TrEMBL record:
Family matches, as InterPro entries: Imelysin-like, Imelysin_sf
Signal peptide feature range: 1-21
Recorded superkingdom: Bacteria
Domain Imelysin-like, chain residue ranges per copy: 35-391
Protein source organism: Roseibium aggregatum
Protein name in the entry: Peptidase
Subcellular location as annotated: Cell envelope
Length: 420
Protein backbone atom coordinates (compact mmCIF):
# COMPACT_ATOMS: atom_id res chain seq x y z
CA UNK A 1 0.00 0.00 0.00
CA UNK A 2 1.69 3.22 -1.04
CA UNK A 3 1.82 6.46 0.86
CA UNK A 4 -0.58 9.17 -0.22
CA UNK A 5 0.41 12.79 0.42
CA UNK A 6 -2.82 14.41 1.41
CA UNK A 7 -4.48 15.97 4.38
CA UNK A 8 -7.88 15.49 5.91
CA UNK A 9 -10.33 17.81 7.57
CA UNK A 10 -13.75 17.51 9.06
CA UNK A 11 -16.38 20.08 9.89
CA UNK A 12 -18.57 20.74 12.87
CA UNK A 13 -22.09 21.96 13.31
CA UNK A 14 -20.84 24.35 15.99
CA UNK A 15 -18.27 27.04 15.30
CA UNK A 16 -16.20 28.87 17.85
CA UNK A 17 -15.26 32.52 17.55
CA UNK A 18 -11.59 33.02 16.57
CA UNK A 19 -11.20 34.92 19.82
CA UNK A 20 -12.20 31.75 21.68
CA UNK A 21 -10.10 29.33 19.62
CA UNK A 22 -8.70 26.48 21.68
CA UNK A 23 -5.05 26.11 22.52
CA UNK A 24 -3.34 23.17 20.75
CA UNK A 25 -2.51 21.59 24.12
CA UNK A 26 -6.21 21.57 25.01
CA UNK A 27 -7.09 20.05 21.64
CA UNK A 28 -4.65 17.21 22.28
CA UNK A 29 -6.05 16.72 25.77
CA UNK A 30 -9.56 16.33 24.36
CA UNK A 31 -8.23 13.94 21.73
CA UNK A 32 -6.78 11.76 24.48
CA UNK A 33 -9.95 11.96 26.56
CA UNK A 34 -12.05 10.79 23.61
CA UNK A 35 -9.68 7.87 23.04
CA UNK A 36 -9.93 6.83 26.68
CA UNK A 37 -13.73 7.05 26.60
CA UNK A 38 -14.04 5.07 23.37
CA UNK A 39 -11.71 2.28 24.40
CA UNK A 40 -13.42 2.16 27.81
CA UNK A 41 -16.79 1.79 26.08
CA UNK A 42 -15.31 -0.88 23.82
CA UNK A 43 -14.09 -2.77 26.87
CA UNK A 44 -17.42 -2.55 28.68
CA UNK A 45 -19.40 -3.71 25.65
CA UNK A 46 -16.92 -6.58 25.21
CA UNK A 47 -17.63 -7.62 28.79
CA UNK A 48 -21.34 -7.56 27.97
CA UNK A 49 -20.57 -9.73 24.95
CA UNK A 50 -18.70 -12.18 27.21
CA UNK A 51 -21.71 -12.42 29.52
CA UNK A 52 -23.95 -13.21 26.54
CA UNK A 53 -21.49 -15.82 25.28
CA UNK A 54 -21.27 -17.41 28.73
CA UNK A 55 -25.06 -17.72 28.71
CA UNK A 56 -24.98 -19.25 25.22
CA UNK A 57 -22.44 -21.81 26.36
CA UNK A 58 -24.45 -22.66 29.48
CA UNK A 59 -27.70 -22.87 27.50
CA UNK A 60 -26.99 -23.30 23.76
CA UNK A 61 -30.37 -22.18 22.44
CA UNK A 62 -31.15 -20.19 19.31
CA UNK A 63 -32.44 -17.35 21.49
CA UNK A 64 -29.16 -17.17 23.38
CA UNK A 65 -27.17 -17.32 20.15
CA UNK A 66 -29.18 -14.38 18.81
CA UNK A 67 -28.53 -12.50 22.06
CA UNK A 68 -24.78 -13.13 21.73
CA UNK A 69 -24.88 -11.89 18.15
CA UNK A 70 -26.73 -8.76 19.23
CA UNK A 71 -24.09 -8.15 21.90
CA UNK A 72 -21.34 -8.52 19.30
CA UNK A 73 -23.05 -5.98 17.06
CA UNK A 74 -23.33 -3.53 19.96
CA UNK A 75 -19.68 -4.01 20.85
CA UNK A 76 -18.62 -3.03 17.35
CA UNK A 77 -20.08 0.47 17.52
CA UNK A 78 -17.69 2.12 19.99
CA UNK A 79 -14.73 0.13 18.76
CA UNK A 80 -15.11 1.13 15.11
CA UNK A 81 -15.23 4.77 16.18
CA UNK A 82 -11.68 4.37 17.55
CA UNK A 83 -10.16 3.70 14.15
CA UNK A 84 -9.29 7.37 13.59
CA UNK A 85 -6.58 6.73 16.23
CA UNK A 86 -4.76 4.33 13.96
CA UNK A 87 -1.89 5.25 11.64
CA UNK A 88 -0.78 8.40 13.51
CA UNK A 89 -0.42 6.60 16.86
CA UNK A 90 2.14 3.82 16.61
CA UNK A 91 0.97 2.25 19.88
CA UNK A 92 -2.52 1.82 18.43
CA UNK A 93 -1.50 0.66 14.98
CA UNK A 94 0.98 -1.91 16.33
CA UNK A 95 -1.79 -3.28 18.57
CA UNK A 96 -4.84 -3.01 16.29
CA UNK A 97 -4.20 -6.19 14.31
CA UNK A 98 -4.87 -8.28 17.42
CA UNK A 99 -8.46 -7.08 17.66
CA UNK A 100 -9.62 -6.03 14.18
CA UNK A 101 -7.49 -7.76 11.54
CA UNK A 102 -9.32 -8.77 8.35
CA UNK A 103 -9.93 -10.40 5.98
CA UNK A 104 -9.39 -13.81 7.53
CA UNK A 105 -9.07 -17.31 6.16
CA UNK A 106 -11.74 -18.85 8.36
CA UNK A 107 -10.69 -22.40 7.48
CA UNK A 108 -7.85 -21.94 9.95
CA UNK A 109 -10.41 -21.80 12.75
CA UNK A 110 -13.32 -24.15 12.00
CA UNK A 111 -15.15 -26.19 9.40
CA UNK A 112 -16.01 -24.52 6.10
CA UNK A 113 -18.21 -25.30 3.12
CA UNK A 114 -16.72 -27.27 0.21
CA UNK A 115 -17.06 -24.15 -1.94
CA UNK A 116 -14.29 -22.60 0.17
CA UNK A 117 -11.76 -24.97 -1.40
CA UNK A 118 -9.14 -27.17 0.21
CA UNK A 119 -5.90 -25.24 -0.27
CA UNK A 120 -4.35 -21.90 -1.05
CA UNK A 121 -1.02 -21.14 -2.67
CA UNK A 122 -0.56 -18.27 -0.24
CA UNK A 123 -1.54 -20.06 2.98
CA UNK A 124 -0.56 -23.55 4.10
CA UNK A 125 -3.06 -23.26 6.98
CA UNK A 126 -6.00 -22.32 4.75
CA UNK A 127 -8.07 -25.27 6.04
CA UNK A 128 -6.07 -26.23 9.12
CA UNK A 129 -9.25 -26.18 11.27
CA UNK A 130 -7.75 -25.97 14.74
CA UNK A 131 -11.14 -26.73 16.30
CA UNK A 132 -11.09 -30.19 14.67
CA UNK A 133 -7.36 -30.85 15.04
CA UNK A 134 -5.55 -31.01 18.39
CA UNK A 135 -2.18 -31.03 16.62
CA UNK A 136 -1.02 -28.74 13.81
CA UNK A 137 2.06 -28.36 11.65
CA UNK A 138 3.07 -24.70 11.43
CA UNK A 139 6.23 -23.73 9.57
CA UNK A 140 7.71 -27.17 10.18
CA UNK A 141 6.87 -27.15 13.88
CA UNK A 142 4.36 -29.45 15.53
CA UNK A 143 2.03 -27.32 17.63
CA UNK A 144 0.10 -28.89 20.49
CA UNK A 145 -3.49 -27.61 20.27
CA UNK A 146 -4.97 -30.17 22.65
CA UNK A 147 -6.42 -27.33 24.67
CA UNK A 148 -7.53 -24.17 22.89
CA UNK A 149 -6.27 -21.28 25.02
CA UNK A 150 -5.71 -17.57 24.60
CA UNK A 151 -1.98 -18.27 24.46
CA UNK A 152 -2.42 -20.72 21.60
CA UNK A 153 -4.47 -18.22 19.62
CA UNK A 154 -2.22 -15.25 20.27
CA UNK A 155 1.22 -16.84 20.20
CA UNK A 156 0.85 -19.70 17.71
CA UNK A 157 -2.06 -19.05 15.37
CA UNK A 158 -2.33 -15.29 14.90
CA UNK A 159 -0.55 -14.54 11.61
CA UNK A 160 0.92 -18.03 11.72
CA UNK A 161 3.53 -18.59 9.04
CA UNK A 162 3.69 -14.78 8.63
CA UNK A 163 0.43 -14.93 6.67
CA UNK A 164 -1.78 -11.94 7.49
CA UNK A 165 -4.95 -13.84 6.57
CA UNK A 166 -4.32 -16.22 9.48
CA UNK A 167 -6.47 -14.18 11.84
CA UNK A 168 -7.14 -16.19 14.99
CA UNK A 169 -8.06 -13.44 17.44
CA UNK A 170 -10.28 -10.39 17.73
CA UNK A 171 -13.73 -9.30 16.69
CA UNK A 172 -13.78 -11.10 13.35
CA UNK A 173 -12.73 -14.47 14.72
CA UNK A 174 -15.56 -14.18 17.25
CA UNK A 175 -17.91 -13.00 14.50
CA UNK A 176 -17.13 -16.10 12.43
CA UNK A 177 -17.77 -18.37 15.39
CA UNK A 178 -21.13 -16.73 16.15
CA UNK A 179 -22.43 -16.53 12.59
CA UNK A 180 -20.44 -19.04 10.55
CA UNK A 181 -19.73 -18.49 6.89
CA UNK A 182 -21.97 -16.27 4.79
CA UNK A 183 -22.58 -18.59 1.83
CA UNK A 184 -25.02 -16.28 0.09
CA UNK A 185 -22.54 -14.44 -2.10
CA UNK A 186 -24.22 -11.22 -3.22
CA UNK A 187 -27.67 -12.62 -2.48
CA UNK A 188 -29.57 -11.80 0.72
CA UNK A 189 -28.57 -13.42 3.99
CA UNK A 190 -25.73 -13.57 6.53
CA UNK A 191 -24.06 -16.55 8.19
CA UNK A 192 -26.42 -19.09 9.74
CA UNK A 193 -24.46 -21.19 12.23
CA UNK A 194 -26.87 -23.16 14.47
CA UNK A 195 -26.76 -22.89 18.25
CA UNK A 196 -26.21 -26.66 18.39
CA UNK A 197 -22.63 -26.04 17.17
CA UNK A 198 -22.01 -25.03 20.80
CA UNK A 199 -24.00 -27.87 22.38
CA UNK A 200 -21.88 -30.94 23.27
CA UNK A 201 -25.04 -32.89 24.11
CA UNK A 202 -26.62 -32.28 20.68
CA UNK A 203 -23.56 -31.40 18.67
CA UNK A 204 -23.66 -30.25 15.05
CA UNK A 205 -20.54 -29.40 13.13
CA UNK A 206 -18.43 -31.69 15.29
CA UNK A 207 -16.01 -30.79 18.08
CA UNK A 208 -18.50 -28.67 20.01
CA UNK A 209 -16.47 -28.67 23.22
CA UNK A 210 -13.42 -27.35 21.36
CA UNK A 211 -15.54 -24.74 19.58
CA UNK A 212 -16.71 -23.56 22.99
CA UNK A 213 -13.09 -23.42 24.15
CA UNK A 214 -12.15 -21.31 21.15
CA UNK A 215 -15.02 -18.89 21.61
CA UNK A 216 -14.23 -18.44 25.30
CA UNK A 217 -10.51 -17.98 24.69
CA UNK A 218 -11.03 -15.46 21.88
CA UNK A 219 -13.49 -13.45 23.96
CA UNK A 220 -11.24 -13.40 27.02
CA UNK A 221 -8.33 -12.31 24.85
CA UNK A 222 -10.37 -9.50 23.29
CA UNK A 223 -11.14 -8.19 26.77
CA UNK A 224 -7.51 -8.31 27.89
CA UNK A 225 -6.38 -6.58 24.69
CA UNK A 226 -8.92 -3.80 25.19
CA UNK A 227 -7.82 -3.43 28.82
CA UNK A 228 -4.32 -2.80 27.49
CA UNK A 229 -5.50 0.05 25.28
CA UNK A 230 -7.68 1.61 27.99
CA UNK A 231 -4.58 1.74 30.18
CA UNK A 232 -2.52 3.23 27.35
CA UNK A 233 -4.93 6.17 27.06
CA UNK A 234 -5.29 6.77 30.79
CA UNK A 235 -3.94 10.16 31.92
CA UNK A 236 -0.48 8.71 32.62
CA UNK A 237 -0.63 6.02 29.94
CA UNK A 238 1.90 5.20 27.25
CA UNK A 239 -0.23 6.49 24.36
CA UNK A 240 -0.75 9.86 26.02
CA UNK A 241 2.97 10.11 26.72
CA UNK A 242 3.83 9.20 23.14
CA UNK A 243 1.47 11.92 21.91
CA UNK A 244 2.85 14.54 24.33
CA UNK A 245 6.43 13.74 23.35
CA UNK A 246 5.65 14.79 19.77
CA UNK A 247 4.95 18.37 20.84
CA UNK A 248 1.93 20.41 19.82
CA UNK A 249 2.63 20.43 16.08
CA UNK A 250 3.45 16.73 16.08
CA UNK A 251 0.29 15.99 18.02
CA UNK A 252 -1.90 17.90 15.58
CA UNK A 253 -0.17 16.11 12.71
CA UNK A 254 -1.01 12.82 14.43
CA UNK A 255 -4.71 13.69 14.50
CA UNK A 256 -4.69 14.58 10.82
CA UNK A 257 -2.64 11.53 9.86
CA UNK A 258 -5.17 9.23 11.48
CA UNK A 259 -8.10 11.03 9.92
CA UNK A 260 -6.58 11.17 6.46
CA UNK A 261 -5.33 7.61 6.34
CA UNK A 262 -8.66 6.19 7.51
CA UNK A 263 -10.67 8.40 5.19
CA UNK A 264 -8.66 7.87 2.03
CA UNK A 265 -6.51 4.77 1.78
CA UNK A 266 -8.18 2.56 4.36
CA UNK A 267 -11.92 3.25 4.14
CA UNK A 268 -12.43 4.78 0.69
CA UNK A 269 -9.80 2.53 -0.87
CA UNK A 270 -9.11 -0.83 0.74
CA UNK A 271 -12.48 -1.34 2.42
CA UNK A 272 -14.82 0.09 -0.19
CA UNK A 273 -13.48 0.85 -3.66
CA UNK A 274 -11.56 -2.43 -3.91
CA UNK A 275 -14.63 -4.55 -3.16
CA UNK A 276 -16.71 -2.44 -5.51
CA UNK A 277 -14.22 -2.89 -8.34
CA UNK A 278 -14.09 -6.65 -7.81
CA UNK A 279 -17.80 -7.01 -6.91
CA UNK A 280 -16.50 -9.40 -4.26
CA UNK A 281 -18.50 -10.06 -1.08
CA UNK A 282 -15.31 -11.36 0.55
CA UNK A 283 -14.07 -7.77 0.52
CA UNK A 284 -16.60 -6.54 3.07
CA UNK A 285 -15.39 -5.74 6.56
CA UNK A 286 -17.96 -7.59 8.71
CA UNK A 287 -18.59 -10.29 6.15
CA UNK A 288 -20.14 -13.02 8.35
CA UNK A 289 -22.72 -10.83 10.08
CA UNK A 290 -23.61 -8.42 7.25
CA UNK A 291 -22.76 -5.55 9.59
CA UNK A 292 -20.37 -3.80 7.20
CA UNK A 293 -22.59 -0.77 6.69
CA UNK A 294 -22.39 -0.01 10.41
CA UNK A 295 -18.62 -0.47 10.58
CA UNK A 296 -18.16 1.99 7.73
CA UNK A 297 -20.66 4.42 9.20
CA UNK A 298 -18.93 4.33 12.59
CA UNK A 299 -15.57 5.03 10.96
CA UNK A 300 -17.07 8.21 9.54
CA UNK A 301 -18.47 9.15 12.95
CA UNK A 302 -15.05 8.51 14.47
CA UNK A 303 -13.36 10.90 12.05
CA UNK A 304 -15.86 13.58 12.98
CA UNK A 305 -15.36 12.93 16.70
CA UNK A 306 -11.63 13.64 16.70
CA UNK A 307 -11.98 16.72 14.51
CA UNK A 308 -14.86 18.28 16.42
CA UNK A 309 -13.69 17.26 19.89
CA UNK A 310 -16.99 15.56 20.68
CA UNK A 311 -17.95 11.96 21.46
CA UNK A 312 -21.46 10.73 22.20
CA UNK A 313 -21.05 7.58 24.27
CA UNK A 314 -23.59 4.73 24.25
CA UNK A 315 -22.77 4.27 27.95
CA UNK A 316 -22.98 7.88 29.02
CA UNK A 317 -19.23 8.60 28.92
CA UNK A 318 -19.69 11.68 26.70
CA UNK A 319 -16.72 13.94 25.97
CA UNK A 320 -16.82 17.52 24.71
CA UNK A 321 -13.77 19.74 24.63
CA UNK A 322 -11.35 21.88 22.68
CA UNK A 323 -11.33 20.95 19.01
CA UNK A 324 -9.18 20.99 15.93
CA UNK A 325 -12.17 22.59 14.22
CA UNK A 326 -11.82 25.73 16.34
CA UNK A 327 -8.13 26.02 15.44
CA UNK A 328 -9.00 25.86 11.75
CA UNK A 329 -11.74 28.46 12.10
CA UNK A 330 -9.39 30.82 13.88
CA UNK A 331 -6.96 30.54 10.97
CA UNK A 332 -9.41 30.51 8.05
CA UNK A 333 -13.15 30.71 8.64
CA UNK A 334 -13.92 30.03 4.96
CA UNK A 335 -11.89 26.84 5.04
CA UNK A 336 -13.66 25.75 8.21
CA UNK A 337 -17.01 26.30 6.50
CA UNK A 338 -15.83 24.36 3.46
CA UNK A 339 -14.82 21.45 5.68
CA UNK A 340 -18.17 21.55 7.40
CA UNK A 341 -19.84 21.19 4.04
CA UNK A 342 -17.52 18.36 2.96
CA UNK A 343 -17.75 16.37 6.16
CA UNK A 344 -21.50 16.77 6.33
CA UNK A 345 -21.75 15.54 2.74
CA UNK A 346 -19.76 12.45 3.69
CA UNK A 347 -22.02 11.78 6.65
CA UNK A 348 -25.09 12.14 4.41
CA UNK A 349 -23.64 9.67 1.90
CA UNK A 350 -23.05 7.10 4.64
CA UNK A 351 -26.45 7.68 6.16
CA UNK A 352 -27.91 6.85 2.73
CA UNK A 353 -25.81 3.67 2.60
CA UNK A 354 -26.87 2.74 6.14
CA UNK A 355 -30.53 3.37 5.36
CA UNK A 356 -30.32 1.15 2.29
CA UNK A 357 -28.84 -1.67 4.37
CA UNK A 358 -31.47 -1.25 7.08
CA UNK A 359 -34.10 -1.34 4.34
CA UNK A 360 -33.06 -4.87 3.42
CA UNK A 361 -30.12 -4.70 1.00
CA UNK A 362 -26.89 -5.67 2.77
CA UNK A 363 -23.55 -4.13 1.84
CA UNK A 364 -22.37 -7.27 0.03
CA UNK A 365 -25.45 -7.01 -2.16
CA UNK A 366 -24.80 -3.32 -2.84
CA UNK A 367 -21.36 -4.07 -4.30
CA UNK A 368 -22.63 -7.00 -6.37
CA UNK A 369 -22.08 -7.02 -10.11
CA UNK A 370 -25.06 -5.68 -12.01
CA UNK A 371 -26.55 -3.82 -9.03
CA UNK A 372 -26.21 -0.39 -10.59
CA UNK A 373 -28.19 1.45 -7.92
CA UNK A 374 -26.40 -0.23 -5.03
CA UNK A 375 -23.01 0.30 -6.69
CA UNK A 376 -23.83 3.99 -7.10
CA UNK A 377 -24.66 4.39 -3.40
CA UNK A 378 -21.28 2.88 -2.43
CA UNK A 379 -19.44 4.93 -5.05
CA UNK A 380 -21.05 8.13 -3.78
CA UNK A 381 -19.73 7.35 -0.29
CA UNK A 382 -16.25 6.71 -1.69
CA UNK A 383 -16.35 9.96 -3.66
CA UNK A 384 -17.38 11.92 -0.57
CA UNK A 385 -14.45 10.51 1.41
CA UNK A 386 -12.00 11.38 -1.34
CA UNK A 387 -13.47 14.86 -1.66
CA UNK A 388 -13.16 15.59 2.06
CA UNK A 389 -9.58 14.35 1.97
CA UNK A 390 -8.61 16.89 -0.68
CA UNK A 391 -9.87 19.70 1.52
CA UNK A 392 -7.85 18.45 4.44
CA UNK A 393 -4.65 18.96 2.52
CA UNK A 394 -5.48 22.64 2.84
CA UNK A 395 -6.03 22.24 6.57
CA UNK A 396 -2.54 20.81 6.98
CA UNK A 397 -1.10 23.77 5.10
CA UNK A 398 -3.25 26.31 6.92
CA UNK A 399 -2.11 24.99 10.30
CA UNK A 400 1.47 25.14 8.99
CA UNK A 401 2.19 21.52 9.79
CA UNK A 402 4.90 19.46 8.14
CA UNK A 403 3.97 17.43 5.09
CA UNK A 404 1.97 14.40 6.19
CA UNK A 405 1.96 11.00 4.48
CA UNK A 406 -1.45 9.35 4.44
CA UNK A 407 -2.19 5.75 3.53
CA UNK A 408 -3.00 5.20 -0.12
CA UNK A 409 -4.69 2.38 -2.00
CA UNK A 410 -4.10 0.93 -5.44
CA UNK A 411 -7.86 0.88 -5.95
CA UNK A 412 -7.76 4.70 -5.91
CA UNK A 413 -4.20 5.52 -6.96
CA UNK A 414 -3.45 2.80 -9.51
CA UNK A 415 -6.66 0.90 -10.36
CA UNK A 416 -5.08 -1.20 -13.12
CA UNK A 417 -2.83 -2.84 -10.52
CA UNK A 418 -5.87 -4.35 -8.81
CA UNK A 419 -6.41 -6.72 -11.72
CA UNK A 420 -2.76 -7.71 -12.24
Amino acid sequence: MKSFKYGLLAATALFVSPALAAAPADVLSTYGDIAQAKYSDSLETAKTLKAAIDKLIAEPTEANLEAARAAWLESRNPYQQTEAYRFGNAIVDDWEGKVNAWPLDEGLIDYVDTSYGEESEENDLYTANVIANPSLEIAGETVDATEITASLLEDKLQEAGEVEANVATGYHAIEFLLWGQDLNGTDAGAGARPATDFDPANCTGGNCERRVQYLQAATDLLISDLEEMVAAWSPDGAARKELADKGEEGGLATILTGMGSLSYGELAGERMKLGLMLHDPEEEHDCFSDNTHMSHYNDVIGIRNVYFGEYKSPLGNDVTGASLASLVEAKDAALAEEMKTKLDATLAAFEALKARAEGGEAYDQMIGEGNEEGNAVVQAAVDALVDQTTTIERVVKTLELDDIAFEGSDSLDNPSAVFE
